[in-house]
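haha ok so turns out i had the wrong file open the whole time. this is the CORRECT one, sorry everyone. sequence first:
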Amino acid sequence: MSEIQNDAVASVHYTGTFPEDGEVFDSSEGRDPLTFLVGHRNMIPGFEAEMLGAKVGERRTFTLEPARAYGEREEANVVTFPRAEFAEVEAEVPLEVGMTLVAGMEDGPRPFTITEVRDDEVVADFNHQLAGRSLTFAVEVVEVRDATEDELAHGHAHGPGGHHH
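then structure:
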């Protein structure tokens, strides 16, 4: 397989920046390339769409508006909890603004960021930290290959040597 398409496994090096100031928010520099199964919702939608058809060695730079990245910020995702619900956490570490924790929800684990710590309440923001932001990506395609039957069945790419969960 020579280009990125659905059901391919793509490996890319990337740098993500904020278009307004060029600040880097994430990069694969100095690490292994990012490897993902294309067309199985493992990546933000705009990233995959912009990379379709790219060939090994090709470089692409694109900017995604929030709707094609992590969505808009929603105030409904900012929730106030009684501070007593954090007693177990506070027994181990002090609660701080900016701290990221994970809540066990009915639909599985959901990360959130503490935005306020009051005497008797904690304000938690369940929006993705990059929600509401436009994102620019500079991407280089390192490898493209056919997905294995296992990868297609599991809905994600497996690392070198097989299955890694």
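The longest helix spans residues 45-51.
again sry for the mixup
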